[in-house]
Amino acid sequence: MKNYNFLFIILLGITLANCGNTKKGENSIFTFDNANYKAQYIADDAISLGILNPNNKEIDSIIYYVNDIKVGYKKGNEKLNFPLKNQKLGYQYVKALVYFGGENSEATARIELVSNVQPKLLKYKIVNTFPHDTTSFTEGLEFYKDTLYESTGLNEKSHLLKTDYKTGKIIKSFKLEDKYFGEGITFINNQLFQLTWQNKVGFIYNPDTWKVEKTFTYDKDIEGWGLTNDGTYIYQTDKTEKIWKMDPKTQKMIDYINVYSGESKIKSINELEWIDGKIYTNVWQKDAIAVVNPKTGAVEGILDMSGLRKFLKVTPDDVLNGIAYNPKTKTIFVTGKNWNKMFEITVSE
Asked: Which of 43, 171, 227, 322 is positioned for an S-S bond with 186, CB 3.0–4.6 A?
């Protein structure tokens, strides 16, 4: 348990769950029987769905929903036992549609599902150290065809860069319009995707000519932060605990996960990288990288990167941000906003 608490301290970007997190329905006819509900559940748990009937209505039947998906039907006022095994982490919104006397009424409640995975403290080894441009406010970092690309932020200063990481020399630079604050990048289907921060638009480039082939608008009311992909889908962060799953062909969000380390959600997850079936993510303003299961959202490992600062000439405001996996060398490259160095590392338990 001491190790578990230590990992929470490393991340620090956690928001503890609220106690008493159930919510009664808006009507007064029926409410969920939630007196025995716990503040938090794990995937091994099941929840008893049932309603209170204070006005003694003659109930014909009840349809139960979890996150607007029908999960069961009961005659009369029977309860439904619902296993939580296959639910995503985060808040679960439960609803009972109660039929009585030719009428119907709803009761609603909310529970929180947290992770039962204890993250492992991972180790890293510095393989090489390379120079990094201190004017680069790093937002995205990714290898494509053995070459390192970088996206930088700030209004009037945002660029897309092609770099020689061994020398720190910029091979090619493309400046975004002054109104855009550049964010994460990723290469998929021979296209280069780039986000902007609060403009709510992204760009799709030809990766060879850097000509903008399409400008798309986010289909959710979110900010643009980090990007990565698994070869089929794109994953995007938005400053919260969510990682969105995007169809690159339509740029529509088709799903999301909530990132939890144990019982705590991890907010402000930032730059992303897909490595060996896991998502590595920076936590904004923290010298830590979380390794996330992309199916569940559970943090499975944590890298404490605070030791890198002794090699740098930076301020506390120059935060860790930038993860790129080089499939050729099977090593990971990390840097930060305005850092004077980039580190090539290997990771182990």
From this structure: 227
Given this model, what pLDDT does residue 194 score? Answer: 98
Q: How far apart are CA 120 and CA 130, in angstroms?
A: 28
Which residue, chain included where needed, has tokens 């009428």?
103
Distance from C-alpha of 188 to C-alpha of 211, rounded to nearest angstrom: 16
Q: Taking the CB of residue 187, how many other CB atoms lie within 10 A of it? A: 18
Classify domain 120-348 by CATH architecture: 7 Propeller (2.130)
Q: Which fold has domain 18-113?
A: Immunoglobulin-like (2.60.40)
Contacts of 37 (CB under 8 A, 6+ apart): 22, 47, 109, 111
Structural domain boundaries in the chain? 18-113, 120-348
Give the span between the Cα atoms of 255 and 80, in whole angstroms.
27
What confidence tens digit (pLDDT) does each residue in 150-171 have? 999 999 999 999 999 999 999 9
Among candidate residues 289, 293, 292, the one with its CA nearest the CA of residue 302: 289
Q: The pTM is what?
A: 0.88
Which residue positions in the chain have pLDDT lower than 50?
A: 1-2, 4, 13-26
